[in-house]
Amino acid sequence: MRPKCKDIAGDPKDPAAAYINDGRFFAHEVGHYLWLVHTFSWSFNSKAEYETNIRANVERQVTAYADKLGKNASDIIKNGEIPDDILKNGLSIFDADRGLEEDLKIEDTPADPGPWIFENEGMDMCKDPLEISVKFSDKQTQKYVFEVKHRKNVMSYYENNCKLFKFRFSPGQVHVMRSVLGGAKNRQLVPKPEFVWLGMT
Ligand SMILES: [Zn+2]
Fold first, then answer.
1. Are residues 107 and 144 in the same domain?
2. Are 95 and 15 contained in the same domain?
3. Structural domain count, the chain
4. Cα–Cα distance, 165 to 151 (Å, whole number)
5. Which residue from 8, 9, 74, 117 puts its CA 20 to 30 A from 24's CA?
6. In terms of domains, do 32 and 43 share one?
7. Are residues 43 and 30 both part of a single domain?
8. Over its length of 201 residues, how does the chain's per-residue pLDDT go in tens digits?
9. In 3D, which of 162, 127, 161, 166 has the Cα closest to residue 146?
10. Are 29 and 122 in a shared domain?
């Protein structure tokens, strides 16, 4: 059965729009059709908001770590003793497709800050790395960088703006699309309701 336009992602009022932009929109919408989600989950308005949310993400992980050890999380933070692997995981909230159910989880796409921050901060999303420095205590500061080279995924929103980039699916994304096409999980091609974004591309 052919899916109706409204059942797949894209703009239901203008399905032909998917074909413009050298087919990049089309590839992106086919990705959705084969169960891929965007590489970003949320986008905040300012660098300050990124800093706040990265800090909160790390502090949540420190709390879980401290609970396991029977220690106090605020002591760990104050003493500059946040473990490296937790510090490095600070961008995990920006890695949208990592948190999906097991067979849809994609681990090889980098954290994506989303496109809107660049305009708000007067930056060029195709040229400027986004650097966020987070100070956890006088003893511990971590610099986080969203690099330009990581903005070339088909399922990002940079495709509309950075026309010179060569956009690619990652091997992990290809794996998911192949498993959907192969029917290994008896999936229907029409996405489940939570994967449908009406009015959003
Ligand atoms: Zn999309």
1. yes
2. no
3. 2
4. 9
5. 117
6. no
7. no
8. 333 444 444 555 665 555 556 677 888 888 888 888 899 887 788 999 999 999 999 999 999 999 999 999 999 999 999 999 999 999 998 987 776 677 778 889 999 999 999 999 999 999 999 999 999 999 999 999 999 999 999 999 997 789 888 899 999 999 988 888 887 555 556 555 454 444 445
9. 127
10. no
Residue 161 counted as domain residue? no
114 Cα to the center of ligand 1, angstroms? 12
8 Å CB contact between 115 and 162: no
Question: Do 147 and 49 reside in the same domain of the chain?
Answer: yes
- Residue 137 alpha carbon to ligand 1 centre in Å: 38
Give residue for tokens 């989303």. 114
- Examine the domain organization and report whether 73 and 85 are in the same domain: yes
Q: Are residues 95 and 23 in contact, defined by beta-carbon separation less than 8 angstroms?
A: no
For residue 146, CA distances in Å to 2, 52, 113, 114 come to 39, 16, 7, 10
Give 28 Cα–ligand 1 centroid separation in angstroms: 6
- Shared-domain flag, residues 48 and 147: yes
Domain span including residue 123: 39-151
Whether 123 contacts 151, CB under 8 Å: no
Alpha carbons 106 and 42: distance in angstroms, whole number? 17
Does 123 reside within a domain?
yes
User: How many angstroms does the Cα of residue 9 sit away from the middle of ligand 1?
Assistant: 7
